Amino acid sequence: MGLALRARQVIALGAVVLLVVAASAVAHLASVARIALGAAAEEGELLARQLYHQSSQVVAGSPEPSLALLQRDSGIRALLEGIVGYSPIVVYAAIVDPSDRVVAHSDKKLEGQVLPPRETLELCVLGLLAEGHLIIEDFPGVGKTSLAKALARSIDCAFSRLQFTPDLLPSDVTGVNVFNQRSNEFEFRPGPVFANILLVDEINRASPKTQAALLECMQERQVTVDGVSYLLPPPFMVMATQNPIEYEGTYPLPEAELDRFTMRIAIGYPPLAEEAKMLSVQATDQPLDRLESVASAEELMEAIDDTRRVFVEESINRYVVTLLRQTRSDSRLYLGASPRAGIALMRVAKARAIVSGRDYVEPDDVKTVAPTVLAHRLILAPEARSSGLDAEDLVRSVLERTPVPV
User: Fold this and answer.
1) First to last CA, the chain
2) Which residue of 45, 112, 137, 308 has the smallest Cβ count within 10 Å?
3) Domains along the chain?
4) What is the pLDDT of residues 119-144, one digit of tens each?
5) Distance of alpha carbon 282 from alpha carbon 279, whole angstroms
6) Between these two residues, 239 and 273, which has the higher pLDDT value?
7) Which tens digits make up the pLDDT trace of 128-184?
8) What is the mean pLDDT of residues 289-314?
9) Which of residues 292 and 200 earns the better pLDDT score?
10) What proportion of the chain, given as a percentage, has pLDDT over 90?
11) Is the confidence at residue 384, as pLDDT, over 80?
12) Residue 277 CB coordination number (10 Å)
């Protein structure tokens, strides 16, 4: 349903409901909404729930409608629809396949684009909802930076870009204290890290000293300069890119920093037909320049709060811990998954559950995202590496031999 039509229906439904409850106490607005939910169709339920949230007269502490309805009506569903289904150009503006509905009220389809795997787009959305950080690792020229910039622009929030180079200093990332001659005092000048979404391009080209400037930011959401800590504005997400085949003039990321990235994703080369279409479009236009946001920072925070409240049964927690312990005891691994990896895995599983319309996590949520969340954190033993085994295959083998809770 188009946003304009939905807005008109909300206004119409609001007029009717407000007339009905005009003589009632405002505290009963939630129960009235619930009665409407029971009698209305699914779309009516959605609109009634929107009315409840949009009402500025809702009394604090009044009953909340059901969580299932919250999932359908909150920024989560709008975010997923806008980024993955409603307009793929928002997620992958420069190389995305045409869709039936596009941003900026444009009915002109963008043809000749390249569509990355849908799983890649969904993983980006899950990373947002899970408050995670993404590292995009793939060959040069496949659109890593374009994907990161498009995802950042799809959210109406502060965005910064850092091109990591060998001569970059930690203060170029975090900020620095500068002496103000007028006030005769030092004042803090925030660095690019003070943004909601930070794009770090070619992260492995900076020195380890500069790479370490991101450790505190990514884990604690704060920056400490000269003994003073400054909180980063929520939501905060780091999206880094690197290519896996060029090592001259690069510095491999330390395990402590890799472990802070929630997921590692790849794009891959486009199909022949899509790549041919992309040539004609990219030669005359830059779709990324026309990008408009589909969600605000406040809507994203609402979606994140909803994700945090997803229920996880104790058996699922034990299942995740069992997976982690399997990696630590596997002889093919020199280093297994850390407890922080388990926390990241559970957060992404919660995000997958809620975008699937559930308020609880299933084992399939964990199994689906486990290779993307865990693989980059593992270090293969020399024997496993020489046999051609990769970390994702090893995670899948661990999943196959670990009993699933029922």
Assistant:
1) 37
2) 308
3) 3-65 (no CATH), 77-296 (3.40.50.300), 310-401 (1.10.8.80)
4) 888 888 899 999 999 999 988 888 88
5) 5
6) 239
7) 999 999 999 988 888 888 888 888 888 888 899 999 999 999 999 999 999 988 888
8) 85
9) 200
10) 45
11) yes
12) 19
Residue 44 is encoded by which pair of tokens? Answer: 């009516």
Residue 345 has pLDDT above 90, yes or no: yes
What the block records as the tokens of 177 is 């204290």
Inter-CA distances, 310 with 8, 11, 243, 262, 265, Å: 31, 30, 35, 18, 24
